[in-house]
Design brief:
The chain is mostly helical. It contains 12 helices and 2 strands; from the N terminus they run αααααααβαβαααα. The chain has a two-stranded antiparallel sheet. α1 runs parallel beside α12, α2 packs antiparallel against α4 and α9 crosses α11. The longest helix is centred in the N-terminal third of the chain and has 23 residues. About 5% of the residues have low confidence.
Length: 328
């Protein structure tokens, strides 16, 4: 009986994601774009991500973040992958991104199987989805057909959402890319996997206020002492701390429970609970009684499809790079 219920839930999630995917297609991308030109494209990317994940699980959140950072600058065109002085990857928000070697590995294999067919932008979109699945999240159908951009400038990364941003600023940045407030909360929920460095949040722990314990009052008092032990004042700012305390390696909705409990690591994350306009959405992901519930896996997949279609280059725009780290 329990097995049947589980199978029915999985089927429902799959159907909802399929419906949501069909609704956002039409920008030139479509599910199965390579079905005739490179039938093994998705399986090659998937097996490559799996292989790297087995030896280094941190590539999963790394690839998910990289896709996000790519889409928010010049659209989802793999401009984040281009090497060189003053390219996007040299911008401060991108310096700690990881997983480039996974994309390069997949591209090498795809060029051997289907030369000049599969874009680096599509490899990154597929790898982000596969990373979520490897960390116990639900899958979704990824529309493909993106082409690679030829421009990559560090200065364009200035508009990426930042860890000190207010909810209003976060909303503005997402709205500028065609994403609404629910997309914002869903996509920030991607912080359910991965880590951040002490340098990006330790300011919240010391001299943040002149009253109480001196810490950001939105942090649970008991949690402040835990974080101070991990990130002592004037300590190692590069030390990595899980963004989803107690579940940093599993893709689930516990990230939202941590926000409710005052355990959000980044200031911008915790504000999703303290700001009334986003708190209700967090509560809906938590299934708070009296509110229409939201299923995180379903909504995350839906928002990822929307995000992955930001300002995409299709048709004859852009190119299919031979090597992902440089334009042809």
């Amino acid at each position: 009986m329990e097995g049947n219920c589980f199978n029915q839930r999985v089927l429902l999630v799959t159907l909802l994601l399929a419906i949501s995917t069909s609704l956002v297609e039409g920008q030139g991308t479509r599910v199965g774009f390579y079905s005739s030109t490179c039938p093994r494209a998705e399986s090659i990317v998937r097996s490559t991500v799996q292989s790297h994940f087995r030896s280094d699980p941190t590539v999963a959140p790394g690839l998910l973040r990289m896709h996000f950072h790519d889409c928010f600058v010049q659209g989802c065109d793999a401009s984040i992958l281009i090497d060189g002085p003053n390219t996007e990857k040299t911008a401060p928000p991108n310096l700690l991104l990881r997983g480039y070697e996974v994309i390069d590995d997949a591209k090498t294999q795809l060029e051997a199987a289907c030369p000049g067919v599969v874009s680096c932008a599509d490899i990154l979109a597929l790898a982000a989805r596969d990373s979520v699945v490897l960390t116990s999240g639900a899958s979704w159908a990824v529309p493909t057909g993106r082409r690679d951009g030829r421009v990559s400038q560090a200065s364009d990364a200035a508009n990426l959402p930042g860890f000190r941003d207010s909810v209003d600023v976060q909303k503005q940045k997402f709205a500028a890319k065609g994403l609404n407030t629910q997309d914002l909360v869903s996509l920030v929920g991607g912080h359910t996997i991965g880590t951040t460095a002490c340098q990006f949040f330790s300011y919240r722990l010391y001299n943040f206020t002149t009253t109480g314990n001196g810490a950001d009052p939105s942090i649970s008092a008991a949690f402040v002492s835990q974080l101070q032990a991990l990130c002592p004042q004037n300590g190692d700012g590069s030390r990595r701390i899980g963004l989803d305390t107690g579940s940093a390696n599993r893709f689930d909705n516990s990230f939202f429970a941590n926000l409710r409990d005052g355990k959000g690591i980044l200031e911008s994350d915790q504000k999703l609970w303290t700001d009334a306009s986003t708190k209700t959405l967090v509560q809906r992901f938590l299934g708070i009684r009296g509110l229409l519930g939201l299923t995180f896996n379903v909504e995350f997949g839906r928002s990822m499809v929307k995000m992955s279609n930001i300002e995409v280059k299709t048709g004859t725009v852009g190119e299919i790079r031979n090597v992902c780290s440089k334009v042809n």
